[in-house]
């Protein structure tokens, strides 16, 4: 019969695997650019369409380089036709006249070809950000506040288009949302969505509310984060374009929100990389597996923890190595934000729940 310790480790690993599976379903493609608006006029509708799509692909390529390459390195990239690097594209919406073509494109680039271009120029590509952000979309419209699947086109837009390039954006499942206090979520209470951070092992959980005007063509977007989150969105006002449906308008608003979040996440990641590294061995006293899992989940929500390793686990304590993007004092403050207390004593660091009495 397996020992209790082995069973504990199996349960812990299974928990990580289930969450990893949830992440894998939400991982974004860094080589896809969404929501490129094009507008061209030519001798005929077909000629205008060809021109608009080619221009849109080149515009998308420039945005791709802005995503993948630091500003200081972009000048080293050879001048190329971005359209030559397109793998495929889709048209989200289009309007035509005899001489004019208007549309919104999603463009996916050939990853191997782009990587070869950057490597040949001696440019290091910015890699995707490991820590995801959980987004809870709330819609206010016609005096009603909705977070459910069927009645929330704002949530539908996030599910289908809420993809960062370097950032994994997760929209919680109906089951995960059903376990929360719906009224508190609708009110933008950060504490109400904190369990989602535990579920997906991230400290970045944002409730993003779209207040849709009566005619459906103006949206005031606000966001609230859980305690300790480094990401936020300043209040935004989005206005629909002529002829744009409500669904199309919300999709475009989501794409812009993702760009804002992604830019912040990149900045946070760059700062973490630039910070001096610090490896720390800590002892985590526990009363059993349940307490260890709770501490582990809170630990995973601390942005200053780059990675961590479980060295050993017994019935009474866990030995953990932390790789920090800060010094101990800053890390202690970050741990306190998620209810963890780190103290030094008897020659080693001790990490425990702030409410624990030992």
Account of the protein in words:
This protein has 358 residues and is an alpha+beta fold. The chain has three domains: 32-120, Endonuclease I-creI (Roll), CATH 3.10.28; 128-273, Rossmann fold; 275-353, Alpha-Beta Plaits. Helix content is 37%, strand content 30%. The protein has ten helices and 14 strands. The strands form three sheets. Strands 4, 5, 6, 7, 8 and 9 form a six-stranded mixed β-sheet that branches. β2 and β3 form a beta hairpin. α4 crosses α8. It starts with a helix and ends in a 5-residue tail after the last strand.
Question: How would you state the average pLDDT, rounded?
Answer: 82
What letter string, H or E per element, gives the SSE order?
HEHEEHEEHEHHHEEEHEHEEHEE
Give the fraction of residues assigned to helices. Answer: 25-40%
Number of helices: 10
The dominant shape is flat
Q: Report the CATH topology name of the largest domain.
A: Rossmann fold
The largest sheet is:
6 strands, mixed
Subunit arrangement of the protein: single chain
Supply the number of structural domains. 3
Write the SSE topology.
Blueprint: H1 4-24, E1 32-41, H2 45-68, E2 86-96, E3 100-109, H3 111-120, E4 129-141, E5 144-146, H4 153-161, E6 167-170, H5 174-178, H6 182-186, H7 194-200, E7 205-212, E8 218-225, E9 236-239, H8 246-274, E10 278-285, H9 289-300, E11 305-313, E12 317-324, H10 328-337, E13 340-345, E14 348-353
